[in-house]
Design a protein that fits this description.
The longest helix is centred in the N-terminal third of the chain and has 24 residues. This protein has one domain: Glutaredoxin, CATH 3.40.30.10. The protein is built from five helices and five strands. It has a five-stranded mixed beta sheet, with helices on both faces.
Amino acid sequence: MKKLFKGIAIIGVIVLVAAIALYMAIPPQQSQTKELTTAPVSLPVLAKSFKSGKPTVLLFEGPGCSACKKQRPIWEDVKEVYDDKVNFIDLMYNISTAKAFEDYKIKYIPTLYFITRDGKILDMHVGLMSYDNLVKAVENLLKD
């Protein structure tokens, strides 16, 4: 019986250490002051979006990213509501999108950029964004 409790205690310590390490590795979920002021046009899809006259929301994500997988259905739901008023572009990290990730200074994923009709970066958000907060950010983008 003592061995069982000792084994459970060891597992508990391992889980606690892993949870602390995971917490330290996850970037804060917050809007940040943007370093960029004008949106770089790194890809043809971005150029086309910016020429449309509608504001743009960019989602930078990566394969194997659990937060990105959680962001995806929220993104799709908001896109369904605002697709006629706002361009929604999602960029999965790969060799063809690496330049855009570099230009937008993406360090953590998911990262969202909110870009006005005239190509100015209004806001950005690093980390998972809730449905309500994403809707607020899109509504704010439409006011500009």
